[in-house]
Amino acid sequence: MPLLPERKISFYIIGPSSSGKTTLCEALSKRLGIHDGAFVREVARTVMKEKGYSRDTIGSLQMQKDIMEAHFVQESSLDNSGFKIRVCDRSAIDAVVYAILTANSVKVGEERQQALTESPGFQEALNRYSDQRSIVLLLKPVPGWLVDDGVRSLEEQDQCLRVFKKLLADLKLFYFEVGEEMKFIEERINFAMGLAKL
User: Fold this and answer.
1) Number of folded domains that form the chain
2) Residue 16 DSSP one-character state
3) Its pTM surpasses 0.90
4) How far is CA 50 from CA 45, 54, 166, 177, in A?
5) Which of 8, 45, 128, 194 qualifies as a FRET site for 151, CA 20 to 30 Å off?
6) Residues spanned by the domain of 28
7) Could you tell me the CATH number of the domain that includes residue 38?
8) In this predicted model, what pLDDT tens digit does every residue of 1-58 receive, in sequence order?
9) What is the pLDDT of residues 75-113, one digit of tens each?
């Protein structure tokens, strides 16, 4: 069991489909001995199941709003917790990216981005992501990793990555990138821990 840091540290693992987000989150949590209550797992599938959404409705702005709201609830629950290290599989940012990516025009995409990111809930989440105690890792697509499981959107991963990067730039949010240059899970764990000085 590693020594706990003196300050709270939050990891936010984001990126396109099948880039290794959940794998990294689970492995990092296991390595660090993260309490299950300090691990925010992917909420999109749960929201889709509860509200009757499917891959065919991924373009629905309401679906992305619902997913974003679910993230707010999960992330906010950690704010007053005593857990020193928290790991989040995705973030509210992911929902905004998919709202932009599935818009039928650039103008609509810009309107969706503005509507979602200017909401009080997102601004509160953005403060968490911008905190110096937070580490945002953007995982890039790795050729050969995309698998169709009937739930994920098989969107153009490179385009999705571009939307992520543009949104992060618009939000002035500092982040680190991990891609095919670092495929092995041990490398990714050590990189994340190194960023957190663990």
Assistant:
1) 1
2) S
3) no
4) 9, 11, 31, 32
5) 128
6) 9-195
7) 3.40.50.300
8) 454 555 689 999 999 988 899 999 999 999 988 877 788 888 888 899 899 888 778 7
9) 887 776 778 888 999 999 999 999 999 999 999 999 999
Question: For the residues of 121-173, what is the DSSP string, one character each?
Answer: HHHHHHHHHHSTTEEEEEEPP-TT-----SSS----HHHHHHHHHHHHHHTT-
Q: Cα separations (Å) of 170 from 93, 95, 120, 159? A: 12, 15, 17, 16
pLDDT surpassing 80 at residue 140:
yes
The whole-number pLDDT of residue 1 equals: 47
Residue 3 resides in a domain: no
51 vs 156: CA distance, rounded Å:
26
Q: 160: which 2 tokens? A: 């999705």
The sign of the CA dihedral 91, 92, 97, 99 is positive
